[in-house]
Design brief:
5 helices; 8 strands; Acyl_CoA_acyltransferase; ribosomal protein; acyltransferase activity, transferring groups other than amino-acyl groups; GNAT_dom; MshD_Acetyltransferase
């Protein structure tokens, strides 16, 4: 396995959409209604949404590849703060980036892809004006929470998150970004 990390291109969309459809359900609680998950994927992880993210100046989309196969992706959005949240601290909108998506194909779980992607993100933001990164992940997703904690994120609150019309409970984690 020789995983490479790079900025996403519009030509990646044909692989990003099925990867998102494959990986998003893994982050949902097992009891979540499958129709709600499918509705979320249809509305929030389609080709138009990915094209918008890739072309926006306030978004950074990266992909992890193993040869020609796309095996992971992230989406970061600058200036987005948690909605429907109860937070223990305030994040400054001008210098905060939301780690909106962070997914790896299940066949590559445990292979170091997530760590490589996170390291790339930290390097990406080290010279930016961004000071904080936050994310929300399902409260029952212990594997993801553990990974984020090992990457320096700390619990700062909770939020509700709409998945295809079904309300899910998330933890909100944040970390200060490295700087030069």
């Amino acid at each position: 396995m020789s995983v490479s990390i790079r900025k996403a291109k519009l030509t990646d969309i044909h692989e990003l959409v099925p990867l998102a459809a494959r990986t998003f359900p893994l982050a949902c609680p097992p009891e979540m209604d499958r129709a709600a998950i499918e509705q979320f994927i249809k509305n929030e992880l389609n080709a138009d949404v990915f094209a918008d993210w890739i072309t926006r100046d306030d978004c950074y989309v990266l992909v992890a590849t193993d040869g020609a196969m796309l095996v992971g992706y992230t989406v970061c959005v600058e200036g987005e703060l948690p909605d429907n949240a109860q937070l223990e601290m305030d994040l400054p909108v001008e210098t905060t980036v939301m780690l909106s998506k962070f997914y790896v194909h299940p066949e590559f779980h445990g292979a170091g892809v997530s760590k490589k992607m996170m390291n790339h993100l930290m390097e990406q933001y080290v010279t930016s004006k961004q000071e904080w990164m936050w994310l929300g992940t399902n409260a029952a997703n212990a594997r993801a929470i553990g990974f984020y904690e090992r990457a320096g994120f700390q619990h700062i609150g909770t939020r509700t998150f709409d998945v295809g019309g079904v309300v899910a409970q998330d933890v909100v984690l944040a970390r200060r970004l490295p700087s030069l």
